[in-house]
């Protein structure tokens, strides 16, 4: 296949050589990706408005006809995070073979069918199967959207565009909370599928990434994709960038067999995997898996409006993501991540202390606003760093030949951590209360903060080749 890639093709079409400095097409491609990420983020908050519905005794509200048990609710909450058992062996290979675009279309199709099935088939086991399928779709979305967003942008703009698509996460959370607060069960699930449908429509007009096209041996199409995606249409610059892509593709072809073994034997890639797992763990164990799915139920039990607080959380999250997108190229991803971890640690430990005192009836009920403040501060900290830059860092750490595999391993680890968190939380909460879990999140984040501060390199504004040199030099 690589021999086909090296065949000389015709020159770039002249209509792309006289571009303005504003390239609307790359923004369109990023906009299309956002809709799939909105769908993926709805998956996590789906359970939050569903808890009160599925625990209701009213058959007109509860489609199951009777309240769901705690263990069944834990299974339904966490089953979508078992998806790595199905996707890990294949997702990277599928992404490389069929391209990022086709993999995203596959994800959107699975998501649409799953939500529509839940809406019209009232059966607990069907719900579990569909939630598992949604998890598979979410894995494909996380891996391919992250890789696609990094591969369509040049290094000087990767920081901004790498975070641009992550704006979808708070938008998806806000969307899920809003429709969950006002829509009945059937309508809620139909509306959950809507962003995936929009993504399918927009995908008709986007190009696959130049790297994905080169991997499939389509040099001419890769060059035309670069023409569309770059601000300066200089043929010489495009040829130089394509040559760099082809060198990485050749390296990937030479390492295609025993890829996991080759990744581990490469010191830079092994270090990238270690750091990728650390940043993934820091995002999943900072406390977000408590705040997004379960905070509404927690506030409701404290006689506070859970839906209102959740909507406020999503708004703050969106503003935080937007703020980070504007400053990341100046501040750097590592600094944002360190600041984010510090805020999350303080918030989790404070919430844990308050809930401990509340469980011992040592604080009056008129101080419940403290918990709301802690959650909102946590979301500010999470949104400016951990929530929007972890996947971008993960995509930047690995060279092309190991990127799909490395990102797959990182996101797989993250999904499995989320499964453990979500499945165990309700059980631990019922037996010991909420505060031990929050203290665990705070202490785990302390460990991650130390590793990130001393070991993680700054990737903002660096080319993939430069990042690999930094990892090889152990900087």
Automatic annotation (TrEMBL):
- Cellular-component GO terms for this entry: plasma membrane
Q: Identify the InterPro entries for this entry.
A: MFS_sugar_transport-like, MFS_trans_sf, MFS_Trehalose_Transporter, Sugar_transporter_CS
Q: Which UniProt keywords apply?
A: Cell membrane, Coiled coil, Membrane, Sugar transport, Transmembrane, Transmembrane helix, Transport
| A molecular function GO annotation | transmembrane transporter activity
Indicate where this protein is primarily found.
Answer: membrane
Any transmembrane segments, and where?
Answer: 25-47, 106-128, 161-185, 197-215, 304-324, 336-357, 369-395, 407-428, 434-454
Gene3D superfamilies registered for this protein in UniProt: MFS general substrate transporter like domains (1.20.1250.20)
Q: Topology in the membrane?
A: Multi-pass membrane protein
Q: Which residues form a coiled coil?
A: 212-255
Which PANTHER family does the record match to this protein?
Answer: MAJOR FACILITATOR SUPERFAMILY (MFS) PROFILE DOMAIN-CONTAINING PROTEIN, PTHR48021
- This one is known as Major facilitator superfamily (MFS) profile domain-containing protein
- Species of the source: Phyllotreta striolata (Striped flea beetle)
